[in-house]
Amino acid sequence: MYGKGIVKGLLVTLKRFFETYTDDIKHGKARYYTEEGVAYRSSPETRGLFTVQYPEEKLITPEEFRFIPFLVYDEKDDGEQAIRCTSCGICAKVCPPQCIWIERTSDPKTKRPVPEPKNFYIDVDICMNCGLCAEYCPFDAIKMDHDYELAVYDRHVNNIYDKEKLLKPASYYADIRPLNYTQEEKARAEAAAAKAAKAAARAARQKKQ
Amino acid sequence: MSESLNSPGYEIPDELQGTVAITTLDRIYNWGRRNSIWPMMFGLACCAIEMICTAASRYDLARFGMEVMRPSPRQTDLMIVSGTVTKKMVPQIVRLYNQMAEPRYVLAMGACASGGGPFKEGYNVVSGIDKYIPVDVYVPGCPPTPQALLHGLIKLQEKIDQQSLKEVPWYKKAPSEPIPVPVLGPDIMDPRDYEKIKQFTLQPVTPVQEEELSA
Amino acid sequence: MTEQTLTPTLNLEERFGDWVTPDTRKGYEGYLVAPEHLIDCAAALRDEFGYDYLASLTAVDYLPDGKMEVVYHVSQSTGGAPLVFKVQVPREDPVTVPSLVSVYPGAEFQEREAWDLMGIRFEGHPDLRRILMWEGFEGHPLRKDWKEAYYEEDTKPFKSRWPAGQVHRVEDTLPFGKNVKYPQGFDPEKWTPVEEEALYASLKRVPADEDLPTEQLIVNLGPQHPSTHGVFRMAVTLDGETIVDLKPVMGYLHRNHEKIGERNTYLMNIPFTDRLDYLSSLSNNFGYVLAVEKLMGIKPPERAEYIRVIMAELTRIQNHLFAIGMFLNDLGAFFTPSLYAIEERELILDTFEAVTGSRMMCNYMRFGGVARDFPPGQLERVRDLAFNRLPAIVDEFDAYLTNNEIVRARCEGVGVLTPEQAIAYSTCGPVLRASGVPYDLRRADPYSIYDRFDFDVAVRYHGDVYDRYLVRMDEIRQSIRILQQAVEQIPEGPVIEGKQQYQVRVPAGEAYGRVEGPKGELGFYVVSNGKPNPWRYHVRAPSFINLTALAEMCKGNKIADAVIILGSIDIVLGETDR
After folding, report:
1. What parts of chain C have a pLDDT lower than 50?
2. What is the pLDDT of residue C540?
3. Do B89 and C223 form a contact (C-beta atoms < 8 A)?
4. Residue A136 near chain C (CB below 8 Å)
5. What chain B residue is nearest to A128 in terms of C-alpha separation?
6. Helix or strand (DSSP H, E) at C83
7. Nearest residue to C555 (alpha-carbon basis) of C251, C248, C328, C249
């Protein structure tokens, strides 16, 4: 019969229309404006209304999500910031569009490089969010941020991020990437322990001699 | 109506609470405009796909009154420059911008449209559409996620809120000047730069200039 | 499909005598053909040896040797490894090579590209104009001695970034503040643009009819047009509403991937490949790492192979969903099918985001593996998608689209491409298979671990728009089948061997890595000279080459059908223009 295909198509649309209501009844209030509601609407089980009402609701950002890089600093007990970056330059060398500029500090007396960057810039208008800098940093010093709400009215004053703007505490990093953080901390602790053990062994050897 | 619309600083007597609304002309004018921005159906590159996703059901631009995407520049208020602007494309973009009716806004979506992005060094890439047309909001990211784009659009709405009927250029007497359309020559040429180009190409090059050019 | 030994030991010297010499450079393969015998040689390869499919044509500038080389990869449409032959000519202007359009019509656009970017003049080409840049552009940018306005150094990393990284925007240091440069003695006011005239002169005119004189009409669709899927343009000559001739105009999104790719290190190119076909970045990653792995002679661990296949098939599904949605948009079913398709695509993108870190620009594969393993819960999510969600959704799509009378009336018999034409024009992917040629690289020249999975090559026989739609539907089902097998069989283990280095050592040589991307054969031709940066990096882009057949498909159809024919090819401009 001519027109059967069209009727069938309309029925599918109608089914989708009603699913929104049946799903609402099934899940009740928890479907909207709650984290589990958003999680449900992003799961393969979801039916019916699919919209996430940004900015009131936000999609759950997965741990691996990457946007603009940031620099990690450890907070010491006395409140001082210990920047992890040693300005070794690997991120600048690996950056595909070459959007990272690092100025190395030198000790004014000895003229030897100091393991902390004097300046660190990222041109956000070039950065391609690829995450290679974070992946290849040997000191876990540069990581990819989750913050994507960065729209500005003037890029010329805002969009070259300097060290001040890039620095974020390790606690923030632990907050956005808990799994990676614990894994890295474990590896660092192990490395530190191994180093200490080695030093102790060497000291013991020296004592013997 | 939102709270901000209905509180221009005049006291409403108690007996009239809830029955009258007082606003200013600016507020109601901007309220109408900010909630009915029609973007141009105009996609350039990767970001355009995210723009389509933003218009689709999960992010739903219709919640902001922006779902009416028009392919014709005459009917649009907002140009979302979504992707890498190439030299070959820039004359068309400038022409489209000129054809848009005031009030018009431009949102540079993504790193490429803002400042050239990862392709900046390329020989056919324009390092930022703001070299040719004025941009109102820049959204960083490569590509910005749909939520990042929505954030940029909310920023644009905030910008519209700040405008005042007294100052907006489109009610001024003088017509706005169209932007000269770039020409495809041996390289892209902005008619505004012709004098400067001639300075460099037609005059004999001094050694200092040569150094400058090669640097 | 016939299973045959896939690497035949061809002795071309026996057949061609001194027309050909084996390429004996270290790391290179194939034959060098004398330019004067090129056409005869190619015709014999096509007719006698069955190499009827020109997979890729590209050029390499060997500046230190003073040579230009044109590289041809041909395959048999019945399957098997490709055969490489090359033509070397001295690097003195004008560089001329005979055109192969008469033997392989699919060479048309690829030769134009080589002329545009490398400045190789193909003698006998019917319409040798620039294709990605515009007529009148100064120079041929892929030549090794050509420098862009923002030129900093030949290769990355640039020294100005570290250790004394004085931040600046490169335009601020240049006289015009823009990415431009002009030749000496150039006067902009005396310049007349030549681009459009050259284009219109190349269009065929309506044959004059003595009884009924009609006026010819040239219509431009695009570059700003809702149906062109981006910044693509078609210049069409019309007789009434019937298309007489059509020329695709592209380059509006030419982002210089190849020039940038030669400045980049090998690793840096991976995120750039994401942005070729931005709808299916993982397939692009796959093709590129395969090519470089071939050069390096390494293989990924077992688990990584499975992850690659899972990701590539998910990519294919979401790409086809999007393609079908947009195709229905072109048909006039504005946005409802797209909305449904994008909804499913979003669910797949969520997986991409959780695993790779980004929705679209995944940057996930590495040489010798993948960047990271699945985070907890994601494999189960893929399983859920593959077994429960996606099959039901495809059935639903089928229910409301496939037998819809309007879809059938608009699509059946429109834009027909015969199997012979499809092969001759080097079309690939769903376009080729809808014309009845069962050529799918996953079967024809298996790579990775595709030989372990049980699936059918989707093929249809009418070669029209409707069949291209059906092939995509079939492919989604087959991809789901592969996914179901892969998530069941995936072993435990590492996803990459050893500690990753940011500077990989790639021995000198050439490699052509190809995968069956969602759009068709996606090839990467990489030439290494042993340095950290590739000497040549060429992308055989399926969307670009499929467009060679667009004019042929459109001729004789109505102008309204040009839109859906273009939609049925499913082009992505990032890949077409690169």
Report:
1. 1-8
2. 92
3. yes
4. yes
5. B142
6. strand C83-90
7. C248
For chain C, the domains span: 3-123, 257-577
Alpha-carbon torsion, ordered A59, A60, A66, A72, to 10 deg: 130
- Between the alpha carbon of residue C493 and those of residues C43, C301, C303, C374, C490, the distances in Å are 49, 8, 6, 12, 9
Q: Which of B118, B121, B190 is nearest residue C150 as measured by Cβ atoms?
A: B121
**What separation in angstroms does the CA of C448 have from each of C83, C119, C174, C288, C531?**
20, 36, 47, 13, 27
Q: Which residues pair with C369 in a beta bridge?
A: C366, C496
| Residue-range domain boundaries for chain A | 1-60, 67-176
Query: For tokens 């055109």, what's the residue?
Result: C99
CA neighbor of A137 nearest in space, from A189, A186, A98, A93: A93
Number of Cβ atoms within 10 Å of the Cβ of C60 = 22
Partners of residue A182 in chain C, C-beta under 8 Å:
none
Closest CA to A54 of B154, B65, B110: B154
CATH 1.20.1260.10 fits C257-577, yes or no: no
Q: By CA distance, what is C177's nearest residue in B? A: B131
Q: What ipTM was assigned to the predicted interfaces of this complex? A: 0.90
**C150 touches B: beta carbon within 8 Å:** yes
The two three-digit tokens of residue C413, written as one number: 């018999």
The predicted-structure confidence for C406-427, as pLDDT tens digits, reads as follows 888 888 889 899 999 999 999 9
State the best of A13, A20, A101, A183 to mutate against chain C, taking most chain C CBs within 10 Å.
A101
Question: Of all helices (H) and strands (E), which one includes residue B33?
Answer: helix B25-34
The overall longest dimension of chain C from CA atoms, in Å, is 78
Residue B16 pLDDT exceeds 60 = yes
- For the range B21-25, what are the long-range contacts, defined as Cβ-Cβ under 8 Å and sequence gap of 24 or more? B25/B165
Alpha-helix runs per DSSP H in C357-446: 378-384, 390-397, 405-411, 419-424, 430-434, 441-444
Residues C33, C13 contacting (CB under 8 angstroms): no
> Nearest CB to A44: which of C161, C388, C400?
C388
Judged by DSSP in three states, A189 sits in: helix
CA atoms of C326 and C336, how far apart (whole Å): 10
Count of helices and strands (H, E) across chain A: 8, 7
Q: Are C578 and B122 in contact (CB under 8 A)?
A: no
State whether A125 and B128 contact (CB < 8 Å). Answer: yes
- Distance separating alpha carbons of residues B130 and B128, to the nearest angstrom: 5
- Candidates B124, B96, B38, B102; CA nearest to C225 is B96
Determine, for residues A125 and B116 on separate chains, whether the beta-carbon distance falls below 8 Å: yes
Nearest neighbour of C148 by CB, restricted to B50, B121, B197? B121
Rounded Cα distance, A42 and C353, in Å: 12
C194 interface with B at CB cutoff 8 Å: no
Q: Which amino acid is at B185?
A: G
Measured between alpha carbons, how far is B70 from C91 in angstroms, rounded to an integer? Answer: 50
Could you count the other beta carbons within 10 Å of the beta carbon of residue B162?
Answer: 9
Search chain A and give the residue with CA nearest B119.
Answer: A97
From residue C157, alpha-carbon distances to B215, C172, C263 in Å are 18, 21, 9
Q: Which CATH architecture has domain A67-176?
A: 2-Layer Sandwich (3.30)
Q: Render pLDDT for C175-193 as a digit per residue (tens, 0 to 9).
A: 888 888 888 888 888 888 8
Provide the sign of the torsion angle of the four alpha carbons C371, C375, C377, C381, taken in this order: negative
pTM of the model: 0.91
Among A133, A45, A56, which Cα is nearest to A89's? A133
Is residue B140 less than 8 Å (CB to CB) from chain A?
yes
d(CA A163, CA A81): 13
The type of residue at B10 is Y
Q: Domain spanning C3-123: which superfamily?
A: NADH:ubiquinone oxidoreductase Nqo5 subunit (3.30.460.80)
